[in-house]
Specification:
Order of helices and strands: HHHHHHHHHHHHHHHHHHH
Radius of gyration: 20 Å
Strand content: under 5%
Number of helices: 19
Largest sheet: none
Number of strands: 0
């Protein structure tokens, strides 16, 4: 009962209702655009490599931008940063929709625009997430993190469910334009938030931006729990997320289907994420979260192997739901640990590293999988990646107890020491 009360409290305030409704609408638009852009790249080129390259250009800017974005979020007005970056995302969507509608879109222009969108998204992610402690009480933070991920999961279901029929009937332009509308709404909700000044702004500026980036990286590397957790998550994203980023070739080559089936599979990912996210949110406690993060990625790997091993679409739908569910378990768990175990001074930088992991490493995985898929087909490269991840899981198990001791307690001090609550 207490756990359900925590989730209810996390969603009960005016601030949280504004924040999460904005997230839901924006991410619904995001998934509409992702489906549409992925299908557009496939229509323009018919190449798995170029579909992977489009995903890479959207996600890869996080490699350079995320550490800087996290440092920025730790030192500037986070509300204004979130607002303006979301405006930039909306402008990028308008540009993609306009060029496509006018018939001037090429794969080169699409790549350039996806890089621009990726840069804006890399700044928006830590700016939004660092506002969360100012929206809910610390005791309700795990439930709020879960609620944030639930919004993403619901959007991942609704967005493709809308995008599939829209693309089939009217083409990709309306689906892409929907993202612009969603992010402008999210910008308005951020403007209406009433955030405590100490949570709205980061720490006073005393060092250069570059020095603070380095300081954040050192904090993560020296932390006995955050360092191994982030490395495990990064390797998992690299090995396992590529399938989700380049779905169109799988839909056509593995299952022999079109855009509507692409939307169905993406929605299956979202349904699985929603179910698992509700369960994780209902736990309402920090104990055992490290194990959920580690074993969730293992289960995701097994489901990924099942997905590529079959050409039977109903089984593919089931495996997609399992992939989405276990990926959600892993992602919510990692975010909860980052929010709860990180010293507040470093929160923006740690969340930006998570943004880097969820954007740059899937991009690298998608690019590698797309290139390998042109040479060897899509099944064997994916199965090899799953096999490699099993070694990563074995390494993670050797660090499990140390991560539990460091992360399921009180936040670490700047020196990297942790205390038990």
């Amino acid at each position: 009962m207490a756990s359900s009360n925590a989730l209810a409290r996390a969603l009960s305030t005016r601030n949280s209702q504004l924040f999460f409704s904005g997230s839901m609408v924006a991410w619904t638009g995001l998934w509409m655009q992702r489906i549409a852009v992925s299908w557009l790249a496939w229509e323009l080129t018919g190449s798995a490599f170029w579909v992977g390259m489009v995903a890479f250009c959207d996600l890869a800017p996080a490699v350079l931008i995320s550490p800087l974005a996290g440092a920025m979020a730790d030192r500037v007005d986070r509300v204004k940063l979130a607002m303006w970056t979301q405006v930039a995302i909306a402008v990028q969507s308008v540009a993609v929709a306009g060029l496509t509608f006018s018939g001037h879109m090429t794969i080169t222009l699409l790549l350039v625009l996806e890089v621009c969108g990726g840069i804006a998204a890399s700044f928006a992610q830590p700016a939004r997430q660092t506002l969360m402690p100012g929206i809910v009480a610390r005791a309700d933070l795990p439930a709020a993190v879960a609620a944030n991920s639930l919004c993403f999961a619901v959007a991942r279901f609704i967005g493709p469910a809308i995008a599939g029929p829209v693309i089939a009937i009217w083409g990709v332009v309306p689906a892409i334009a929907g993202n612009a509308v969603g992010y402008m709404f999210a910008c308005l909700t951020i403007y209406l938030l009433r955030v405590d000044p100490k949570e709205r702004r980061g720490h006073p500026v005393s060092k250069s931006l570059g020095a603070e980036v380095v300081e954040g990286l050192r904090y993560a590397a020296r932390h006995p729990g955050l360092g191994p957790l982030l490395l495990y998550a990064a390797l998992g994203a690299l090995m396992l997320r590529g399938v989700q980023e380049i779905l169109p070739p799988f839909v056509e080559r593995l299952f022999g289907r079109g855009a509507e089936s692409l939307a169905i599979l993406t929605a299956c990912f979202g349904v699985g994420a929603l179910v698992t996210g509700l369960w994780v949110a209902s736990r309402g406690r920090l104990e055992g979260v490290v194990r959920l993060a580690v074993f969730g990625a293992l289960a995701q790997a097994i489901a990924t192997a099942g997905f590529v091993a079959t050409g039977y679409f109903p089984l593919g739908m089931l495996c997609a739901a399992l992939i989405g569910g276990f990926a959600s378990m892993h992602g919510i768990s990692v975010q909860t640990l980052l929010q709860s175990a990180t010293d507040p001074v470093y929160r923006g930088r740690m969340l930006s590293l998570w943004g880097l992991i969820t954007r740059a490493f899937p991009a690298l995985g998608a690019l590698a999988l797309g290139a390998a898929g042109e040479l060897f087909g899509l099944q064997w490269p994916t199965l090899v990646a799953v096999a490699v991840f099993l070694g990563v899981f074995a390494w993670g198990m050797t660090r499990l107890r140390r991560m539990e001791a460091a992360l399921e307690g009180t936040p670490a001090s700047p020196g990297g020491e942790t205390g038990r609550s």
